[in-house]
């Protein structure tokens, strides 16, 4: 079966600095892969490449069979324009560290915005679906609240519902709980755990080792622009082989 994400030797530089230095990574349909690693190791940049927010400089990166940034026709690759990129991006759900809801829209309006704009659903249908999603993240009673009226944990749960509204094949999470007050982390992780158990394909950058241990099929350690170790969470956490992994696991325990 074809992986949902397939990265081979992915490279990315900003000016003279090579941030991704040959990343090999795969996620199969229905799998949860967690990425851990020190700050500055390229985790966010890698997610941004998967989500068509950055172009790669080398290697190969495919999402759901398509080369990121390109369309394949008669065996040749053609660069996608901004409009085509935006439409590919819309097929991937992304939740960032900082709450990135539209501040002038209510929770419900945030959720229906993309599916209506991209004509995935009619407005009444999008509203019906959004209410179901709000119910799933436990926030039906906050449908008319603006982001500023919600806690950080509630905002992240709306952000997750908003990403799900586009019925994405793949969900990307970039440290979704690291900007939250400690008492709000659990409610977001429990929504993510449920998504994992429902069989969603997820790539999660996180320092929440307990979460990774419970839900990840694969855990990888990124360091200095490369994946230096990968395995089951149990192997990686209890018996790390690479010195970088040993040091990192010690630091977050
Ligand atoms: P992580 O998410 O693992 O903390 P990042 O992917 O955010 O790491 O960053 C990796 C490196 O790339 C850092 O040194 C960062 O400063 C650099 N970087 C990230 N984005 C840019 C950019 N747009 N321009 C220049 N440098 C960048
Ligand atoms: Mg980051």
UniProtKB/TrEMBL annotation:
GO terms for molecular function: ABC-type amino acid transporter activity; ATP binding; ATP hydrolysis activity. One of its GO terms (cellular component) is plasma membrane. Keywords: Amino-acid transport, ATP-binding, Cell membrane, Membrane, Nucleotide-binding, Transport. Its main location: membrane. It is found in: Cell membrane. The keyword Nucleotidyltransferase does not apply. It is a peripheral membrane protein. PROSITE patterns: ABC_TRANSPORTER_1, ABC_TRANSPORTER_2. This is Amino acid ABC transporter ATP-binding protein. It comes from Borborobacter arsenicus.
